[in-house]
Amino acid sequence: MLFCSVFVIILCWSVSTVYGIEKEKSGIRIRVTRTGLDYASALGSAILDDEIPNTPVPDVTATITRGPGRGHVILENVNITLFKSPEFSYILHPPKNLTFLTKGGFVKVEGDWLAWYKVLFNVSLSGKINASAGDIDIRMSAEVIRTPKGLPEVNVTSCSAEIGDLNLEIEGGVIQWIVNLFRHVIAWNLKHELAKQFCVSTQGILMDLANRELQTLPTEIPIYEQFYLHYALSKDPKIAKNFVQSQIGAEITWKGESATPVAPIPLPNATTRANASRMLYIWGSDYVLNTFLYTAHRHKAIQFLISKNMDTKIAQFLKTTCMILCIGRMVPEIGKKYPNQSLDIHVHSSNPPLAEIQPAGAILNATAFADIYLSPWNETGNLMFRTQITFAGSLGIRMVRRRVVGNLSIDNFHIQLVESHIGKIPLKALVIVEDAAKPVLQDLANKHLRRGLPVPTVKGAILVRPRVKLLERAIEIETDLSYKKYFPRRIMKNWKKVGDKLLNN
């Protein structure tokens, strides 16, 4: 129950802002609405129905003080045979606490009893019990905090549980008046032991399973080759009246590096209705994309080669000798000095590209050098001339499964001569370089944009019908969630161990 609700809160944990005008800068923000919390409650109910019947119930003991003698009774081998989970509700307590409440529900148990009673001599009795109770009321308060490593952790601050009237049937025991002496006390003890165990078990799920799983969340995700997305909670999640938010710093860096000098962009002020129909809202700054572009430029990852091996048309352009149209014909000095050879165009970024997202559309601006060498460029080292390419393109952004992907369409493309080591370079030669570089540059950019950036989630979490909206310097993703992961019954054996630890603290 509580585990699932907190799980949804941190599910993509990519996140948040303080209320009103945001004074801190972050790469990503997430908001879990009441719709998301309602889903978590329903999910928690289903999990409890499946798992509570496997909860071990400790032996229950009582002292028999009524009647003419004294004795003891013990219930052992107590098993939950039926459990119908109660209805869940929750209360959000700004700025950091949540309280989860249950109402209703039903439980049945069975077990064995043994009794010893002494008046003038010892009498031993045994038999079986069957018990049932309703109105399972659990009240649990918790907070989600940030660990020093930037991971989320759930702390239960309090838990109490009560069960309604318990109906106890005692079978066996040939001396009925002795059985009646302990019926009331053993029923009272069993009722309170079950209530305590429900509380301990729920906390066990939360603290053992949830935290164990949350601590396995990676803070470094491989994007492509040596590029990694680094992300971590920058502060404790915040709780408001109708939603829960958290805040994350996120950057894409080269493996082994932890930060870039790119300045974060403040996320736009977040607005969602109190009755928002989607479970989860994520805001991502274009700052995250720009950290990738900076890193790619710094590590010389934005480069490609245009050579005769690409296609027939390009191979023709790159010839030093031809009858109609090629660079060697446009620049006669190249044809004279290097007849019947081919050229390479080495394109590489001259500055980090810059992406800017606006409500009307996203734009990518970039500059690059296009260096024309005698082929093969990396062996001859013979630079003929250098040009600079400046372009701006429209950047389409959409969701594909759990990734934010893009598509680039180059709108403006300009090329100019920077330097020449082969004499005068006519405009027609620059046009040939432009015709060769523009489509290759666009195709290469789209190859990388199609890989996209992942939205981090724990295993088993699926984004349902995500939609992307462009904002001022950010994107907004609204989505529902589905959690498919199966909770294995082996976790139940850990509950008693965790519960004992809780009771001893």
TrEMBL record:
Residues 31-257 form the Lipid-binding serum glycoprotein N-terminal domain. Residues 1-20 form the signal peptide. One of its GO terms (cellular component) is extracellular space. Pfam families: LBP_BPI_CETP, LBP_BPI_CETP_C. InterPro entries: Bactericidal_perm-incr_a/b_dom, BPI/LBP/Plunc, Lipid-bd_serum_glycop_C, Lipid-bd_serum_glycop_N. GO terms for molecular function: lipid binding. Keywords: Disulfide bond, Signal. Residues 274-479 form the Lipid-binding serum glycoprotein C-terminal domain. Belongs to the BPI/LBP/Plunc superfamily. BPI/LBP family. This is Lipopolysaccharide binding/bactericidal permeability increasing protein-2.
